[in-house]
Design a protein that fits this description.
Rna Polymerase Sigma Factor, Chain: A; 2 domains; two-stranded antiparallel ribbon; mainly alpha; Arc Repressor Mutant, subunit A; 194 residues; 9 helices; single chain
Length: 194
Amino acid sequence: MLTLLPIRKCGWVALPVEDLNSIIEGCKSNDRLSQEKLYRQFYPGLYALCKRFFTDNHDILTALNDGMLNVFKNIGQYDPAKGELFNWAYTIVRNAAITHLNHRKMLQPVAGITEQMEQTLYYSPFKELEWNDVYLYLDKLPPATRAVCALHYIEGFAIREISERLSLSEGTIKWHLSESRERLKMLFSKASTH
């Protein structure tokens, strides 16, 4: 029997259940070969996840590796009855990326949000794009704005939740969302004229 592991928007990877169970058991025993197999299996999807938050490859790999270390440390807590292993690992790596953002102090508070910004808060600039194009445009945003944009529009976090996780005011989060939409609007218009 095969289990299909979702790699969000990046495709599907088939892995026999027996192999997955063997890898999980090996990881629980701190078997380096099993850890490497799991890392390699999930690398494409988790790398893509971290790329949403960072442009620098060092930051991407730091967040990914920190997250995978947490996966290996906590693999005994994984409960297959609650969901797929990839989704569990995805959440842990995403949280590691958020922690890395906080440690890097990339996000700074900004002035309050204007009424014009407030009106466009709920429009997603990515809804018309192909998935590969999203990364091209995300790469063009400043790091802090990119991170907030990815958390809100791609990961689906609410403004309040982003505010709490990043220890920033909701106004700052709204400003970054507005800034991302304005910058993306300009990029989209440039791309459509070429």
